Model the fold of this input.
Amino acid sequence: MNNAVSKAAPRKDGPGLALVSAGVTAWQIVLMQALGWVGWYHFAYLVIALALLGFGASGTFLTLARERLVRSSGLVARTAAALSAAGMALAPLLAGGGATAPDIYLLFVDARHAALLGVACAALAIPFFLSGLAIGVVLTSGAAHAGRLYAWNLAGSGAGGVAGWLLLSVLQSSEALAIVALFPLCGALLFRMERGMRGIVSGSCAVLAAIAVIAALVMPGGLQPSQFKGISRLLDLPGASVVLDEPNPRGRLQIVETPAFRPAPPTSLRFAGEFPVQRAVLLDGNLRGSLLADHAAPGAVAPFDDALESVAWAMGARRNVLLIESGGEGLAAWAIAKGAESVVCVEPHPAVARALARVLPAGATVVRRDPRDVLSARGVLRDVIRFPIAGSFGGSAGMHAVGEQFLFTAEAFAAALDRLADDGVIVATAWTEQPERNAPRLLATMIEGLTRAGVSEPRAHIAAIRSWSATTFVAKRTALNAADTEAIRGFCSRLEFDSLVLGGEIVEDWERFHEVPGSALTEQLRAVLDGDIASAEAAAGGAFRLGPATDDRPYFSQFLRITHLPRIARESGWRSAPFVEMGYLVVALSAPLLLVAALALVVAPISRVGWSGGSRWATSLFAAGLGLGFMFVEIGLIARLTLFLGGALPAAATVLTTLLLAAGAGSAFSQRFRAEPRTLTKIALGVAAVCISLGVATSFAPEGWSAPAAVRMVVAALAIVPVALVMGMAFPTLLRSLETAEPSHVPWAWAVNGCASVVAPSLAVLIAVNAGHVAVFAAAAGAYTVSALAATGMRSTSSRSNPR
Amino acid sequence: MAVTISLLAVAPFSVGAAPAGDEARRRDRLVSTTIEARGVKDPRVLKAMRAVPRHLLIPERYRGEAHGDHPVPIGHGQTISQPYIVAFMSEIIGVKEGDRVLEIGTGSGYQAAVLAEMGANVFTIEIVPELARRAAVDLREIGYAGIETREGDGYFGWPEKAPFDAIVVTAAADRIPPPLVEQLADGGRMIIPVGPPMGEQFLLLVTKQGERVRTKQILPVRFVPLTRR
Done:
């Protein structure tokens, strides 16, 4: 039968296969940004999981109906690819299009949105299922040309990653989604045409898909942001309008104008002037900063005179100022007015940097680089290094709890300390919340940074002051002297701020102007100053982690201990409890839900075919270990390379593309090995060893290296290739081994592997958040080790030939 | 202990109001079983809470929800506040008979009506024009014609009517507009929810004595968003 099928599957299907494969990768990348703008960043991991779920389900379907599908391979490939194109064009409108779109903020208060999320996930998984079916049926039916077809498949997947990135450079994500849908549509048209009724059916599907894609192209913009996103709330204000809307793969830039937008830094209540109207700067729908209409206008920068952060200027003259992700030009203009000779604003986002450069006053410049690179680079020593304000106002940073923040880590503060002039200061501020979390963690992180920089008595180098809304910390290379303390006291007294930490101790009358009855803030800070994080956490009831954030665990905004959620829920009601830290909870909940979906769609249907023979557990464990291990490495690399590549999306694009290409090459290379359990053990142990070294190696990503983004992506890709090559060898070798030793295990191996892959991204995020990135690579090594051990229990080809 | 100021127990269908006597009984029950039970003691506040016909300030389709201790949508993504929080803010602000009180964020007009019922001269500002117009009409119709309403940006306060003995801000803020502090009378008090429009907030009491302005965190609260309909 296979021979007959192969004849019917000419190698001409290669270009079509490449286009469908390209569409799949590009769609993942574009979808991540589109859904990030509509909702939240957490969708990035969900997109990967849904892609794997769709592909896993298509593999199961192909297994169950192999004969019939292969017999009609032309019809199936063409129809599935065309319908996949239609799905790619339309599904995002369902998932992110207003009334039908789920809103993560409403998941826990409105069952309708939980149902909508389920529908959206199903809708988004369908194009992946159809693409997977098209690819699978072409590869299966074209066995005689497998090598050539596989090469087209891999080339297409890799090119898709690049295409997705390029499309987001020139188009809004809603437009890019429609363009990407053209890939599988063109792929369908390139697949071999069949005659008769089959040709009519597949042709009709292609026409329908073309109509859907054209409709999405002509009418893009069906996506609508959540009503709770910054962009929605700003546009609700009177007279609001979007004056700039610029696509960018690192985040969509929007600038909104409204006469009612008057942001201000944490400012003294003594300030009697006017907070000026500003233009809001948003990235992916989230408020990033603000631009003054005219910083030279009288009083435009006056609020900074009375701002908490101005304490750094009260302590001495500031000629060289470094403002990290300042989000606007106001502070730069004020610093120049206060005598600064050089103000450097560090802004990693290219579009924001351009917008900022257009309005900066003379004497101020913008550097378009990752802040960590700038902090690590040798050069001018600074009198002030100002960090952006940590945490969302009022403590709702929970939505960002699982997003890497490499700027608020001990390593970042250590690097900043190294760039300070002798009398220079680091200024970092945390918004107030109840109970306090940002301030104690910020202090803990700064102290850890100072310790890593070689400071023996860090508490003597740090001071803290507070207003009704925020706490500002200053840190120096040298211990704060009497003049510093006097300047801080005078500043606080004049502007009615409270001194909180001076001379390494909590100030006695820290509530002189702003009372916080019942607050555990001072107990927390005292414990942190003493290096006793456990006591600091206990002072606030133990529900929140307050230890320092590090590059290995760069989750500054993740505080919640999930075991304490029931207590919080009892106190405040279940409906509001998730809002303490929504992002973390969404990921935690998605893992079991995805497992159920994968079991239902990928594993359960396979039970129809049954399996026989021994070592079923060995096969299952081996396949599961590979699925978990591969995805742990993938997610670990994305998280780890976010710092090196300056963002989650470039990291995801680089990692996805490279892993696909290199693992595919490894897969092809594996044909040279003998498919024996012993070989499998060696490969799995090899990958486990590489995982450990990968975890260690990525801890030493070069900082301060001034290279363009493209060069960095190439360097990262080259570093991934060897690992991915070896990883790509394991599964094909398993399949070849099973084909001869235990043929009935093959579909099960696919299903179990697919199921593990679906649930792995969520697990990887949970491991990273709780134990750090190195732990994710260690978990990958563990998974591969389990596979290696499982292989020792598998039957070899020879044992089947000579059954005992 | 945190207090939930919003729940999403909104009926998915239109619920008409009960007869006036029933509504009064429901209000009385709400005040007795929830507001008093949770510590609001000021008899003038309790009396005002019993007197103001909350259901008449709510869109008709949600009137069946009027006497639950949770907010109710009033359109434009806004809500009529949870009764307990309205009572708590009215008590903590210490309004006396004849005080001049400025409210920022009229919304449905409910908080303004409670303050007026306590004997205050109330001035209220709403930024969303449709809400401002509707509240003005509703307040007049239910007998609070003395409340002065205005459509505009609350940032600037109402300088022509200043100074105020008390200012009640009903929308969460990340800064306190200087004009509001300026328009506070000597010895005046301002209550303001602080924090993001969703997530955790706390109520802040601002007091002004001469040139000195002090703040005190009063109560942590958590916000649960409501579906925009």
